[in-house]
Amino acid sequence: MSSDSKRARSTVGTNHESMRQRNLMVMIQTIHAEGPLSRAELTARMQLAASTVGDLLSELESVGFVVVEEPTRRRTAGRPSPLVRADSGRVRVLAADVGGDHISAGAFGLGGTMLSRAQAATPRSHDPEDVARVTSELLERLVADLAPESELLGIGVGVAGVVGKDETVRFAPHLGWHDVAFADLLRARLTAPLLIRVANDADLGALAEHRRGVAVGVANVLYVGCDDFGVGGGLIFNGVPYRGAGGFAGELGHMLIDPHGRRCQCGRDGCWETEIGLARVAETLELGDSDLSRVRQALANLDENPPALDRVGTYLGLGIASLVNILNVDLVVLGGSLRDLYPVVKRTTDSAFSRAALPALQELATIVPSGIGSDAVLVGGCEMVVSSVFEGPVRALADVDTCSVAGYRTGVGHGGSRSSEGGPGQGASSR
Q: What residues contact residue 321 under an 8 Å CB cut-off, 6+ apart?
């Protein structure tokens, strides 16, 4: 055989293996996002031969990513198709939501199911080292409750601040942070190394709603969230998260809404969050402080459109109108305390939106409360990790790096379950 023929056969084999690995990754993503699915439905989505789908499923089942089971009932005439779902009992993803008032953490199974949750007050010092310590303690508490045979895929962290593409928290006014490498601080306190991803909390809220909430299947989405103190935004354009040139897109709370308005914690006057944020709502309702749970409870006890909140509702509508005029989105999702505020001020907000939004753009946009609620950032953190591991350049399934819970507890055994070459520390960097 000529050398050219050998190279051609080698290229064909390499291409075939690359395609197989790509199909494995796409299959995991599909089952995670859309499952449970019948094997027939999965075959149709993948547009592959039934025998190929069967081979891929067997491989994914053997490493604990999916479960194939017989259906409990017939959905159509003829032989029922086996049901395929993510193995939520084996693979685990951790997530944390770091705010100025509280820190929450959650453990998820593959498939997006939250299995446990923990919460603690943010240290009053807001010192990054202290915040990393409390966050790591919450995560360690969740790991302690997991079965030893579970596999940890990584940790997704949302922070209420400006987070760059390098995942450094460039500026978090409500935490008083500047250029904090929070992933590094967190990693230094964990028992064993794990993949850690850090993003803006509102970006994760947008991702959560697009994958699991009211924005599933919607191409262009604006998420506006308000937790603790600030207001942030997340964008989905053409079905893909949009973060801007430096990763900073979505700082909606610092959009100028009133040049003669109040001083914002960012140091400027008249930012949008000074008119619609938690502190403004608490002050308007004469609550004395801006504790999130107190504000939510107070809003739940109000009738629709109390006059005291007319100004807040008006500014909410005007801000949304400006953003819709610029972005031309299909859906505006209101999360955090805005999810509780909007039903109360809906008439005032919708009226202001109608006056300020251009008719053609207004007709296309719908305003809705978050479908996930207070756990949106945690859900988004889980989805960010899954996307980081299974999307992007083609990689081999054996190279998907996990850490067994048993190994994590002893500080060893990272990456050994899926890759014969993986050792402690592999995949631990913030990617």
A: 352, 353, 355, 356, 357, 362
Q: How far apart are CA 224 and CA 231, in angstroms?
A: 7
Terminal C-alpha separation, the chain: 44
73 phi and psi angles, rounded to 5 deg: -155, 160
Say if residue 266's pLDDT is above 50. Answer: yes
Tokens of 235: 């964008």
Can you name the residues that pair with 158 across neighbouring β-strands? 97, 199
**Which residue has 């494995």 as its token pair?**
24
Burial of 352 (0-12, 13-18, 19+ CB in 10 A): buried
What's the sign of the alpha-carbon dihedral 386, 388, 392, 396?
Answer: negative
CA 260, 263, 268 angle in degrees (round to 5)?
85
Q: Is 135 helix (H, G, I), strand (E, B) or coil?
A: helix
pLDDT score, position 20: 87
Q: How many CA atoms lie within 13 A of 229 on its CB side?
A: 19
Q: Taking residues 324-333, what's their average pLDDT?
A: 97
- Position 250 pLDDT exceeds 90: no
What is the predicted pLDDT for the residue at 2?
A: 53
Per the DSSP assignment, residues forming a β-bridge with 105 are 96, 118
Tell me the C-alpha distance between 16 and 21, whole Å: 9
Query: Is the CB of residue 209 less than 8 Å from the CB of residue 222?
Result: no
Strand partners, 336: 226
The pLDDT of residue 188 is: 93
In 190-344, the DSSP E strands lie at 196-200, 221-226, 231-237, 240-242, 331-336
Distance CA 105, CA 139 (A): 6
Beta-bridged to residue 241, according to DSSP, are 236
Q: Domains in the chain and their CATH numbers?
A: 3-75+82-86 (1.10.10.10), 91-203+382-410 (3.30.420.40), 214-371 (3.30.420.40)
pLDDT > 90? residue 366: yes
